[in-house]
Amino acid sequence: MVDLSTGAEEAGKRAGGSNRIGLLSVALLGIIFIISPEIIGNAFTSMLDKVKPIVVDIFLMGNVGVSIILSVMVGRALERMGFTDALIRLFVPLANRMKINPAVVIPGVYNILGDINAAGRIGGPIMKQAGATRDEQCIAIATMVQSQQSFSCFMLGLIALSLAGINAFPVVLCAVFAPLVIVPFVLSRTIYRNTRAVALKDLPSFTPKTPPFQTIFQGAREGAELLFLLVIPAIAVIYSLIGLLDYIGVWKPFEQSLSGFLGFVGVHPGTGITAIMASPTLAMGQLQEIAASIDPRLVVGAFVLAASGLPLSDVLGQIPAIWSVNSDVTAREALTAAIIGIIMRFITVTIIAFGLTPLLV
């Protein structure tokens, strides 16, 4: 006979905990309604003011939303033409030396070519198809956030470097392409060790057999689904929390501390905060206007930081949401890997800003 008493007790404890939190919430809201009812309305307005400019002005009315749809479409077209197969086969010899699945580089390359959201949508299934372990999929995420997520960001950054009198080629080589090899090597030896080499003959074909026109149309539809069902909801969550923290008074001190930290690691504070909180492309546009008049180290640092998986809404919201649906990793594992990648990016920023810049000016 099955004893249901233990299960009933545990369910009762969980329900009791939820009920206590619910009662506390009701009591707190009741007190607020009595003492100062406008607090709730003002808090909601603050959240709305943070979310609306990003979701509506940038993603719906601006170029970013359209670029996500086009990036997925172009990525699927490249995949159909055999780009993924060719890239993996080029990377196999080096990956075998590092004893890691060569597919870890795919999301990073698709990020350089298109968009971080499209990179997750396309790269996640490729990682699964290649038989990558969960650790290797986490390495792929950390590697992906080492490169910029829009071509316009890259071009504006190059203009800023030239205006500051900096030779762009070594910066691009060290900041964009070298991490595709260095990050997987470092992480496979430290945090994510469950990796294995895969022989070329054991890799499947990654080129789909769908008709070309159908591939392009499905890619565009997939991009629209990605934008409206994953990207925009994730952004709304992150920026609504920022709006709430701003209303409480916690966010401004954090922004001030962040500004001091950016100056310390070699990033122009104004453009750095824009890259972290809003848009790296917008940050590079701002940097272009002031590049000739500020310290070259700050220009290089801002460029390297913008050439990453930022803004923060991508790291905290979009990457976990997209990778948890399209790969074997959970949202928490994807978030952890993305944060590790961004921490490594800040280390790269400091090394290049203070170590490489004096040699280029």
TrEMBL record:
Parts of the chain that traverse the membrane: 21-41, 53-74, 154-187, 226-248, 260-278, 298-323, 335-356
Keyword terms, alphabetized: Membrane, Transmembrane, Transmembrane helix
N-terminal signal peptide: none
Record flagged with keyword Nuclease: no
Protein name: Membrane protein
